[in-house]
Write a structure and sequence with these properties.
single chain; 131 residues; mainly alpha; 6 helices
């Protein structure tokens, strides 16, 4: 119980990021065609429109890697107090969100880009707490 209370802020941040990224991956796999259609429509008038599918696959890969380290890190932190994987999870989450931010800016979706700021701050705060 002392591991939970001594790492409660970190565990809550990890849970938030796990929910964020794991559900995102599940949604993308559950409706891959719909996701590709939506992303193609969003970026249709940009210079990256010819490479949407590879970029989307790369984004899903980053989300899967982030989810792996976040879930693994959550349990390591909870059970043994080891925070290395949790730190990697927060770092990968931050990098994934930055890549999404680049995409939102390219698409000129400024409200979408703004909303990513909250996720980025939470993941960077996780990096801060786990460093």
């Amino acid at each position: 119980m002392t591991l939970i209370t001594s790492h409660l802020p970190e565990l809550l941040i990890l849970l938030f990021l796990i929910i964020t990224f794991a559900i995102s991956v599940i949604e993308k796999f559950a409706d891959w065609k719909g996701t590709v259609t939506y992303i193609k429509e969003t970026f249709k008038n940009t210079f990256i429109s010819p490479v949407i599918k590879p970029l989307l696959i790369l984004l899903v890969f980053f989300e899967v890697v982030s989810s792996y380290f976040l879930i693994n890190g959550f349990f390591h932190l909870l059970l043994s107090g080891d925070n290395e994987n949790a730190l990697y999870g927060c770092v990968f989450s931050s990098l994934t969100i930055l890549s999404m931010l680049i995409g939102q800016r390219i698409a000129k979706d400024y409200p979408g880009a703004t909303s990513l700021g909250v996720y980025f701050l939470i993941s960077v705060f996780g990096v801060f707490l786990l460093s």
